[in-house]
Amino acid sequence: xxxxxxxxxxxxxxxxxxxxxxxxxxxxxxxxxxxxxxxxxxxxxxxxxxxxxxxxxxxxxxxxxxxxxxxxxxxxxxxxxxxxxxxxxxxxxxxxxxxxxxxxxxxxxxxxxxxxxxxxxxxxxxxxxxxxxxxxxxxxxxxxxxxxxxxxxxxxx
Length: 157
Prior knowledge:
Oligomer: single chain
Distance between the termini: 43 Å
Number of strands: 0
Largest sheet: none
Radius of gyration: 20 Å
Strand content: under 5%
Low-confidence stretches: none
Structural class: mainly alpha
Mean pLDDT: 88
């Protein structure tokens, strides 16, 4: 057990030392985790060229393993616009630095807040709790490339 003090620098050193000492055991624990178990399949599904093909692959995987059912339903029921923007974001950020990714996170979060679908999702899940959001676009095919591009406009990343 770590004994913390009032000195944040000392606490930082204690935690850093503990992590270094336990790094191998943490890796072993992570290796046996569920995400680690599904990592190869998730990488393949995440590498699909479109959210629609990701959904199709998740649904196929769910036929063999119920674990994939929750992410398939989440993608299917979520905002098609948000899915397409998120898909582009993940592709665009693949080789970005942490600073670049966090900067884009902030910009996209602000742009989502000003849009229709994020407030609608909050309403449906948290306020009215009817779990029936009325997305601006109901299908992936209804979202235009220009709508997605607007979220990334004027960014230097």
